[in-house]
Amino acid sequence: MKLYEFALAPNPRRVRMFIAEKGITIPTEQIDLRTGQNRTPQFLAKNPSGGLPVLELDDGACLAESVAICRYLESLHPEPRLMGTDARDQAFVEMWNRRMELELFTPISRAIQNTHPMFKERMKQFPDYGEAQREAVKARLERMDRELEGRQFVAGDRFTIADITAFAAIEFGSMMGVVKIDPSLERLTRWRESIASRPSAKA
Amino acid sequence: MKLYEFALAPNPRRVRMFIAEKGITIPTEQIDLRTGQNRTPQFLAKNPSGGLPVLELDDGACLAESVAICRYLESLHPEPRLMGTDARDQAFVEMWNRRMELELFTPISRAIQNTHPMFKERMKQFPDYGEAQREAVKARLERMDRELEGRQFVAGDRFTIADITAFAAIEFGSMMGVVKIDPSLERLTRWRESIASRPSAKA
């Protein structure tokens, strides 16, 4: 297997963290999104959507989409469980992972893509829309602080893929100037520090 | 179990189709999104995100997010397999389902939310952004037509959740004036007719 990824992008980071938490190693190849290496015919043959990461299997089949890659790796290396234990727990972990993806990761990405100078050349920007997304992010982070009352992790008492999704989104948003966590959000601040202190956060 | 849903909304339709394909029955309760029944304190206690559908389990726990609900139902009623057979097949079905969701369902929803008069009162609209999303939908449908060359269904030779996601998106987009499939897209037209002819399409 081989993972096509890009060190600076948030979706590859999700899969890198997942792999690190599993304690496994997968060879990687960097595809530089900034220079359009994901838009070459060679790469589009692996993933016509042009996104990263992509997991190339030993028979050459290419699996795209971070969560699909993580679930496949979870099936090959079940422990530690990062996507839930039994069927019921798996369902609630998926619910939380999707909330973090759709309600946090997505608006952070859209705020960045529509307002950051780095994306000016790459796509048509809609700055007003991007600003509205920034407000949505702020509101969602405040809600996340309340959700973390009495629980150590996003989906409950156990570290899961939902923590990875939220952390990758927040770190990318911070780096790009879209996220700033107010220190008054104490539970969120505490959660973020606890995730940042895991070895996988450096992956 | 009980499913909170709304007959006219696309995400509940995904789960209704999934349930119909499984041949099972789950009692439902309508939550009218148009009159804000999903924003009452009673409903927000079930799903703080305010989205539909929500599956209430017998112990009162509430599972939100369509795909999480479908995966849970797949675990309870494995046949017919709608989310893949073995781990590898499940990964590729998930990839295709996410592509249909992120690259088709999402831009259709955003085009509608940002341009349709029905959403004027419900959210701040960004019509230019909505128009750009409409163009993205058109391009993705053309690509989908090419992807369907030599395959009967979105993820290959078997009907899966990826077909449900794409179909629910396209039907909602058509109803709301955002999707119009050009008859020259013959494979897409043929696929759509084949899905529409399934009994579950009426669910």
Give short descriptive properties of this protein.
7 helices, homodimer, four-stranded mixed β-sheet, 4 strands, 203 residues, 6% strand, 52% helix, alpha+beta
Structure commentary:
Chain A has 203 residues and is of the alpha+beta class. The first copy, chain A, has helices at 10-22, 41-46, 66-76, 87-115, 127-147, 161-175, 186-196; strands at residues 2-5, 28-30, 54-56, 62-64. In chain A, α4 packs antiparallel against α5 (127-147) and α4 (87-115) runs parallel beside α6 (161-175). The longest helix of chain A has 29 residues, at 87-115. The two termini of chain A are 18 Å apart. The mean pLDDT of chain A is 97. Chains A and B meet through α3, α4 and α5 of A and α3, α4 and α5 of B.
What is the helix fraction of residues of chain A, given as a range? 40-55%
Number of DSSP helical runs of chain A: 7
N-to-C SSE string of chain A, H for helix and E for strand: EHEHEEHHHHH
Which structural class matches the secondary elements of chain A?
A: alpha+beta
Distance between the termini of chain A: 18 Å
Oligomer state of the chains in this structure: homodimer
Percent strand of chain A: 5-15%
Q: Reading side by side through the largest sheet of chain A, how are the strands ordered?
A: 2-1-3-4
